[in-house]
């Protein structure tokens, strides 16, 4: 299964809001040259909330085509509608993704049994490896560890992105999960610690801006080399924090624009990075040689 630094890649756009396909191809090539271990296409960082279903499917397909087998691609295909999640997951499977990432349904706040039935329905409808994505700070719903472990009994539910920022919960999942179920961090600030505790990698925002360092940190952390992993992670601390001075992916897109890779266009209701944060993000980038 996929291990290491998995970038939650931004979706480049033109100032008029249209998808910047050349920019997307440029980012794919950048990640491949910098050692990124896998790409998530159209996760939260990819602005899944403001892409329509056709764009959503097209961005995933275009990413697969641009990667051309050089890296695993994970399609973000979750929704708060089970039927829509199934349709997006089928589309991503046809496009050739390695796996799909399925966010906990947002806004409608289902109970635990509803979450179980939602993910089970997708798993039974589409025969492709599926990774759950728990980010209660975004969704207002939280899949608990017991429900996650029930779902881990299904053959094609192979892991979870844990963005709870609760290391004790992550460690509990790692300890109790079957050998063929993988825990990934979804919080850059605590990813190193969770990998040192046995997580298989991180699905990262920071990796958009410092992919080489994230790859190296993850390599050391997953292999249990605590000293080298923590050394790199300490050098990334300011950048981890800077990527969230405003809502993700606002800072990441601005940082990438400063690197000359894309422009910082983003869809409403998100807007470009407020000028008061420019110096903060720029300083964090300079501390990691990303600028």
Brief sketch in words of this structure:
With 291 residues, the protein is α/β, with parallel strands linked by helices. It has helices at residues 21-34, 53-67, 82-95, 112-125, 136-139, 145-151, 167-176, 188-196, 211-222, 226-242, 250-258, 278-287, and strands spanning 4-8, 38-41, 73-76, 99-103, 130-134, 157-162, 182-185, 201-204.
Notes on the protein architecture:
Helix content is 46%, strand content 13%. The protein is α/β, with parallel strands linked by helices. An eight-stranded parallel barrel has the order 1-2-3-4-5-6-7-8, surrounded by five helices. The protein starts with a strand and ends with a helix.
Per DSSP E runs of 2 or more residues, the count of β-strands stands at 8
| CATH architecture classification | Alpha-Beta Barrel
- Measured by DSSP, the beta-strand proportion falls in 5-15%
Low-confidence stretches: none
> Main sheet?
8 strands, parallel, barrel
Radius of gyration: 18 Å
CATH topology: TIM Barrel
Strand order in space, largest sheet: 1-2-3-4-5-6-7-8
CATH superfamily: Aldolase class I
Distance between the termini: 33 Å
Domain count = 1
Element-by-element helix/strand order: EHEHEHEHEHHEHEHEHHHH
Average pLDDT works out at 97
Structural class: alpha/beta
The 3D shape can be described as globular
> At the first level of CATH, what is the class?
Alpha Beta
Helix content: 40-55%
Count of runs of 4 or more consecutive helical residues: 12
